[in-house]
Amino acid sequence: MSENKEEVVSEALKAEEKLRSMWYILDLEGNLVPVDEFDYTGYDNLQTFSGYEVEKDRTVDQVPPHVTLMKSLELVDYEPASDPGNFRYYPKGRMIKALLEQYVTQEVLDYGGMDVETPIMYNMKHPTLEKYLHRFPARQYTIEHDDDRYFLRFAACFGQFLMAHDATISYRDLPLRIYELTRYSFRREQRGELVGLRRLRSFTMPDVHAMCRDLPQAKKEFRRRLKLVVDTLTGIGFEKDEFELGLRMTEDFYRKNKRFVQSIVRGHGKPALVEMWKERFFYFILKYELNFIDALGKASALATDQIDVENGERYDITFMDEEGHENHPLILHCSPSGAIERDIYALLEKAHMGMAKDVRPSLPLWLAPTQVRLIPVNEDHVALAEGYAKKLTRAKVRADFDDRTETVQKKIRDAEKEWIPYIVVLGDREVGAETVPVRVREDGKLHQMSLSELSSLIKKQVRGKPYRPLPMPMGVQGRPKFVG
Ligand SMILES: [Zn+2]
Predict the structure, then answer these.
(1) What CATH number should be reported for the domain whose range is 11-355?
(2) Ligand 1 centroid vs 182 CA: distance in angstroms?
(3) What phi and psi values does residue 417 have, to the nearest 5 degrees?
């Protein structure tokens, strides 16, 4: 093997393996307790999470439930013709993913992020990037072209930093908030660590940076973004207490900013795992993530934010202060939702875990590919079903109708297998009637209501969320089967 072909392993990745961490639980009273001395009564997920983090074992030995679900619901699938960890999205999965992308972007724009777009590949010989590659613990895909070697980006950071480097920035412009949703970021995770939508090699990552003039401004902005993070995750359909907070920092930062760190934990509402280092090893002094614990007890970071003290200087990003002096900003890196694929993974795992508690699995209504399924009892009622589906569609509700020649029971069963939240069976009684019987998935009951009541009910529940039309033809008959 020629030297040129060797995998580039970042120095940070090599050193990370040797890194010595101190692990604690920080409780709501501000006590910092070593992980093995903490009383986990009532904090099962925190115990799972700290066990998982301290071990740092990323190998996967079982197929996680979301992998079965992503296929049976015809959302996402493996693509054997690609490198493992790169997926295909069927129409329903693509719609869900697009809605999530749109929603997170909308939240970031509301917060003040400026949306930009940057290249997906960079020259490995670029002087700044060459150094940066060794500070980031990730493996790259590389592309060779003529005598040049490029890497596929593993984050949105450097595109934005290179842009900021060339910009003229005044202290008045700070905090400067730049945003990009990368489709995709690439990381060549080790083969044995790849697992469904949880750990992939290409992923969609919203990343909003905030350049701040000093630590007080960075801390203030950090708090603001915590709200952005919680709003985004709960907006998607998670509960705040479904997440475990992981905080990582240098001992020095903790000592000087105890009250700030404690306030983050109090805001989270339950004890958090803390990883601490004697010296600053990474480019950040503080980082947190909100972690989701799945059905197999594995933890995955969704949202994250960090205070970066290195890259302002490394990329030579400067702002002019009141006295006309040039300074380097501190940079916050935040993903309010984490990788979009991971959101889908977590939603599916959550649905699966609910089944053990007798909750019918479902997706948040705003993400349900079909929100209302109209089922005609026989072919005489197909036109009525189609008319109703069109009427709902005009009101921006995703409705379809089952025009297959199957029994009503079979059609209802199939709609339930698709987790459709509202099912309406249409027979003779419904012809010319004011109301229709609506089978509601959430409570498993029949509710009599008019079509406009149904559409207002749905509109109320999806308020503030983006909308996309039905991702498949309106008649079920005209749909291909993508899986199985
Ligand atoms: Zn970043």
Answers:
(1) 3.30.930.10
(2) 11
(3) -65, -25
